[in-house]
Amino acid sequence: MNDVISRIKSWFQRDDRGASAVEYALIVALVAGVIGGIVYVLGSRSGDMFQRACKELTTGSTTATCAPR
Fold first, then answer.
1. Which of 33, 52, 55, 58 could be 64's S-S partner, Cβ–Cβ 3.0 to 4.6 Å?
2. Where are the transmembrane segments (predicted)?
3. What is the mean pLDDT of each run of 10 residues along the chain (69 residues)?
4. What is the value of pTM for the model shown?
């Protein structure tokens, strides 16, 4: 019985080839999630900021518009 347990333990101990690949994939997924969250939050805020800047620049102009092209 001890022989079977020691064989199973040795099989799990030496089979760690894919462990670092999985760890790197988790890190990449985490970084991508953080970047996606930042883009989501700043995307709406930057759109408002550009719209406000456009309105400020076109104040007093009769031909300029802030409509997207």
1. 58
2. 21-42
3. 76 66 90 92 79 80 68
4. 0.46
Distance CA 32, CA 50 (A): 26
- Domains contained in the chain, number: 1
Does 68 fall in a domain?
no
* Token code pair at residue 52: 């406000």
The tokens for 66 are: 């802030």
pLDDT at 30 (0 to 100): 97
**Amino acid in position 42:** L
Query: Which residue shows structure tokens 């999630």?
Result: 33
Q: Is 54 exposed, middle or buried (0-12, 13-18, 19+ CB in 10 A)?
A: middle
